[in-house]
Design a protein that fits this description.
Number of strands: 14
Helix content: 40-55%
Number of helices: 17
Distance between the termini: 132 Å
Strand order of the largest sheet: 3-2-1-4-7
CATH superfamily of the largest domain: Ribonuclease H-like superfamily/Ribonuclease H
CATH topology of the largest domain: Nucleotidyltransferase, domain 5
Length: about 475
């Protein structure tokens, strides 16, 4: 198209009476073009070029193209579908039209929800801030936004671990005075272990928390951030309008200013709803929320552990027993402020009171089998030793009491005396024990020597402890 300045020059030269041929030479423009411009001027008095508007036939099929793009079809497939509907553009024209209008990137479906139906949650990076210990650390802002009223809850945290993620939800529900029917979240590991679209696997403690409050969990499809666009906007809003350009001298100052800002933010006129979130929340959304349960949710952390050969698992630097049949197997443990619960395949297998301190063993002896308990330290083992000595006779029972007083590892002597029943009768062993009692002997070897020397039948008055015959006794 000829430029406006050249078009004006040609008309000016014509008005001055210069011939078409000479105008063509002066302006270096073809004579036919000069002639057309002059004829249009003579006919319609048009002194400036009028651009021609070329309407593409594809524009009439714009809604169909948007619809087909929303189903993630390629340009080739869209072309095939359009031909089935009666429109047959070229591949190049259709591809150019989609690129020109940037249709694929600029189109999405707006999702609407009823009051109390949905809340969206997410973390946002807000740089380094002061933590409660007044140390500068990487910080995140948690946002829960109610989808209907756009009422916001914000909280600054310093990690994205499961306990922090859950506690933020609990704090948000308390702030709103109720829970939504559904929580829309991203596929972060604190909430979703396996982002399977058809059957997502949630972090168990997070799922327990949702069940406690009666709300459902709904993770977004991977790479579809627009499905939680409301909370994305909430994160962007707090970062740009509160954290941007502000510096805080300590953690208390940051939280105090954030609380004041959140109140003002919830009292502003929202750009989409054209209503204050606080007003819409009070009038419609708050009555529709699920009422909070009367009991607080028991915050627990979940850990995967392998049971050691001694039938214990290590949790928070302490040790807790499980039934011996699960030795060397992998289990899952729930660690709350007061209890430790251990599961295998979601079935509980052990419960203990949480130990205070470090290096403490909490052992339930019932977790060991019948034969595992046949060792010192178990009541069953002690009882077996005592019953064995009682079967021999009264003197052996009395000797056992003396042995306990003299020896910490009294089981050794008791087991040795009981084993002598394989060689001697109970009556003879009991007489030997009587002689040992008389002379104050409390060792297995002395009882055995009395039996081997057949001195158990000798009168007791002939020997004295420590005397010349003490070595025989």
């Amino acid at each position: 198209m000829i430029k406006i300045a050249m078009h004006t020059t040609i008309i000016t030269l014509h008005k001055e009476g210069i011939s078409d041929r000479k105008i063509s030479k002066l302006t270096h423009t073809h004579r036919s073009t000069v002639k057309k411009i002059i004829m249009r001027y003579k006919k319609d008095k048009i002194e400036f070029p009028v651009p021609r508007k070329i309407t593409s036939s594809i524009e009439g099929w714009h809604p169909d193209i948007v619809e087909l793009l929303s189903t993630k079809l390629s340009v080739v497939r869209i072309l095939e579908e359009l031909r089935l509907r009666g429109f047959n553009p070229s591949y190049q024209a259709l591809s150019a039209y989609i690129r020109k209008h940037n249709i694929k990137q600029n189109t999405c479906i707006r999702l609407h929800t009823e009051a109390g139906e949905e809340a969206q949650v997410d973390f946002g990076d807000v740089g380094r801030q002061y933590d409660p210990a007044e140390k500068l650390r990487k910080a995140y802002v948690f946002n829960m936004r109610l989808s209907y009223s756009r009422m916001d809850y914000y909280e600054v945290v310093f990690d994205q671990k499961v306990p922090t993620w859950i506690q933020c939800h609990i704090n948000a529900f308390s702030f709103f005075g109720g829970a939504p029917k559904l929580v829309k979240l991203d596929n972060l590991k604190s909430g979703v272990i396996d982002a399977n679209y058809y059957e997502p696997v949630f972090q168990k403690e997070y799922k327990r928390m949702a069940d406690h409050y009666g709300c459902l969990l709904s993770p977004c499809r991977p790479y579809q951030p627009q499905e939680k666009g409301k909370v994305e906007s909430g994160i962007k809003y707090v970062k740009n309008n509160f954290f941007a350009g502000r510096k805080f001298s300590n953690n208390h100052e940051m939280n105090t200013q954030l609380d004041k800002w959140v109140k003002r933010a919830n009292d502003r006129i929202h750009g989409t709803t054209k209503t204050k979130p606080s007003d819409l929340f009070a009038s419609s959304e708050m009555p529709a929320l699920i009422k909070l349960p009367t009991t607080n949710f028991d915050m627990s952390s979940w850990h995967y552990r392998k049971v050691s050969r001694d039938c214990h698992v290590t949790l928070d630097k302490n040790y807790y027993s499980v039934p011996n049949k699960y030795a060397s197997q992998k289990v899952m443990a729930s660690l709350s402020s007061h209890l430790v619960k251990i599961f295998i395949n979601d079935a509980p297998i052990a419960t203990h009171t949480r130990a205070k301190g470090h290096g403490i063993f909490t052992t339930d002896t019932n977790h060991y089998g019948k034969y595992d308990k046949k060792c010192p330290g178990f009541k069953e083992y002690d009882t077996e030793c005592q019953e064995g000595m009682q079967k021999i006779g009264n003197n052996s029972s009395k000797l056992l009491e003396n042995i306990k007083q003299e020896h910490k590892d009294w089981h050794r002597a008791a087991r040795g005396i009981i084993k002598l029943r394989k060689l001697y009768s109970d009556e003879v062993i009991d007489l030997a024990c009587l002689r040992a009692l008389h002379y104050g002997l409390t060792t297995y070897s002395k009882v055995k020597k009395i039996l081997e020397s057949n001195s158990y039948n000798l009168p007791l008055g002939e020997f004295k402890v420590g005397g010349e015959h003490a070595n025989v006794a």
